[in-house]
Amino acid sequence: MTAPNTPETPSPDGEGASPSFQFTDKRKVTRDSSVVEPLDSATTTSSHQPARSDEEAAGSPDPALADAVNEAMSGLSLDDPQDLAAVRAERDAHLDSLQRERASFTNYRNRAIRDQEAARGRGVEDVLTALLPVLDDIERARTHDELTGPMAAIAEKIDASLNKFGIERYGAAGELFDPTLHDALMHRADEAAAEQTIDLVIEPGYRLGERVIRAARVGTVGPE
Questions:
Q1: What is the pTM of this model?
Q2: CA atoms within 13 A on the CB side of 126
Q3: Does residue 113 come out as left (phi exceeding 0), alpha (psi in the -120 to 50 range) or beta?
Q4: Distance CA 106, CA 114 (A)
Q5: What are residue 127's phi and psi, to 5 degrees?
Q6: Residue 180 near residue 143, CB atoms below 8 Å
Q7: pLDDT tens for residues 72-91?
């Protein structure tokens, strides 16, 4: 039975030794011994070097951008007043362009917010308009003390939901008549009355914020 293969032990003279890693410096040295020019990245990259992670790659500068900046600055001298003025003018142009883009984005964002709020308001208004007949029936039942039991609890939940969306019910007897808020369907003359007030609420009004969805339909009393 043969013995298992064992690793060869390098001899002192080097015979039988496994090949070792060798490094060859391929950089070029210019006349000025203090300046070393590296070769291309493809030449200096070793297969033994691990690949960089995405975080390291993201943090490294863009070679193309660095080359463009170096090329643009290679012919400039900041000691020259003309070159310095040109750099400052280009800086001001880029700064002005950046400020314009920022202002345009701010206007777009504000316009988008206003459009969203307007769309939300139109949606709430459409739902309220569809529910007006039901709300009127509930209000009539409440006026005639017929809203009792489970229906009373349901009516309270509906009112809470309307308040949650900023919908307000208005119109009550004794209030001053306002043609921008009330729609007078009937009028009763009273010589003793100094002002025209609401005498009867036929259907309450509803408004969303400052916007009147439906004016209150009322009967008024006041002077001729």
A1: 0.53
A2: 6
A3: alpha
A4: 12
A5: -65, -45
A6: no
A7: 656 666 667 777 788 788 88
